[in-house]
Model the fold of this input.
Amino acid sequence: MWDQFFDGYCPESKLKGEKVRMRLNANDFFESEKTGLQIAISFPGVQAVVLKFRGKGDFRKTVNYADEVENGELLSPQLVDGFPYCGDKLFGGENEFREYLNEIKDRSK
Done:
C-alpha cells in the first residue's frame, strides 16, 4: 500500500505488505533492516529522501529506529549527490515510486 508520508517503516517493504523497521546506520541514514533501502531526513517534519544507493547493513552500535522519532515527512527522490539530496520534487504516486525503486540495485539479490 502506497503512502506519501514516511512513518519510519520501509516504504518499499510496505508495498509488499511487510512492516520492516528502518535503523540508523553509520552514515546517519535510516536503512531498512531487510532491503538496505536508505532514507535521509533532509528537513525534519518536511522531507525524507529515498537515496539512490542501498546501505550495506553497517548499523550504529547504539540502536535508533526511525519509527520511534517519525515526523510524517513527505517522501521524495534523490536529485543531488550531497546534502540535502533533494529539491522540491515529491513522488507523484505509487507507480513513480515503484519505477524509482527499479532503478536502485536490490541488495537482497
